[in-house]
Amino acid sequence: MNPYAKMKHSDPISDAQPPFPSATATMRKKHHQQPKAGLPEKGHSSVRSPWLLSVLAAVPLFVAPLITASFLITISQFEGSLSRFVTTGFEQGFLTIMKAHGPRLSLKPTFAYTCYIALQAVLFYLLPGPTNTGQRTPAGYLLTYRTNGLYAWVITHSIYALLCWYGLLDPGFVIRNWSGIFIAMNLFGYLVAIFAYGKAYLRPSHPEDRRFSGSALQDLYAGIELNPRFGKTFDFKFFTNGRMGMISWTLIDISSIAYQHQAHHTVSPSLILVTILQSIYAIDFFINESWYLRTIDITHDHYGFYLIWGCFCFLPANYTLQAQYLTHYPTSPSTIYLAAIFSIGIAGYALFRSVNNQKDRVRRSNGKCLIWGKPAQYITATYKTSDGVEHKSILLCSGWWSCARHVNYVGDLLLSFSMCAVVGTDKLLVWLYVIWMGGLLVHRIVGRCRGGLFRVFGEGYRPTGKRLDLTTIYTFHSVQSKIPINYTISAHYTK
């Protein structure tokens, strides 16, 4: 879940792996290949100039945290009005506002956040769970993961509830100390990114899967290692995506409810519904955690600042803007309005899950299943990894996948819209979530899908017509994501 791709919305690249990956070892390579000597090849960025890469990387490295901090200030000082914040910023100077009202480092929330990270690391390492295999890496590795995130989510929230029940923790602690926690999230985001950068040079887990750009800042930002690990089982990227992002999300929402009750002696229905929708979202992520292993977050994104800071800070700070706003400024939409918006959100989630379940069912059964009461229709595809070994997979083209190429994205957007609309305000700040998701998904469809299909299949894409267009929405993600896997489509269409 890199966060910018909204973890749960990242589509599984199930077409890029065999239908039945086994999980009998922590890590193994299914075929032999000669390891690369020395440093691996440089990355595949279209920008080749190291100094230009450094400039492009420096902008998000230093500007993104400031933008996120501006949202915190907008809520605390400008009643959630971005227009007022911007106007005042031009009048008084944005740096002046940052110095006067920006978040502050505080020992207590920093210590609490450190304990939270330690707890998540212990749960990640010790809790039992099924073992699942991820996507084949460019160097040919098949890594296995213990998916115990749902247990960790339940235990974390249970500990939080018990500490509050016995008076050891203020239920509204997170929101009451949000300024200090925000600084702590940023601090750890930077520290872990620097650690990952050094580890990639000194103790890489899989040297053949590293990627270098020629620019130190770009490598710090985009990451060098694909799957850095501590030992054989502690995968840093998997831990960061799920535990520091998704579990934090619902904890912040729950603390928002507690703080609103303490401050206003009531809890607004809007905040309750926002929390329910986002909790459904997070719990579904952990229930389907094995599915997440085949998304571009895990298979494509290297472990750098982009992913690390995104999960430590961007996701918890920005995906909870609706709850943060309602905590301080409760709204009172009508019951009919709330019921209608909430129903749209549930319908969007149901659509999202139904579409992706069809995909998973066909992949896991190797096409031997029913879709909408009829035998699944699919195209058999072959692809080659960078070492020349050929593999087979299937591309579903019935059920939802015969209706449109991205019906799951429709469900995503409906759910995202509901999370914002249920707040019941026209403040732009609370709508940034669905605006972000809309832009992201359109970019995937237009930027990656159309262009990627033709680049992967060349002229062979045209004769297959709309059916291939409908059913290969994942195959080109790997190519666009700089994973050197070349695909060819065989002539086997099964009804």
TrEMBL record:
Its main location: membrane. It comes from Aspergillus glaucus CBS 516.65. This is 7-dehydrocholesterol reductase. The chain crosses the membrane at residues 51-75, 110-128, 149-168, 180-202, 303-321, 336-355, 430-447. GO terms for molecular function: 7-dehydrocholesterol reductase activity. Residues 1-43 are annotated as: Disordered. Keywords: Cholesterol biosynthesis, Cholesterol metabolism, Lipid biosynthesis, Lipid metabolism, Membrane, NADP, Oxidoreductase, Steroid biosynthesis, Steroid metabolism, Sterol biosynthesis, Sterol metabolism, Transmembrane, Transmembrane helix. The keyword Magnesium does not apply. The keyword Membrane applies.
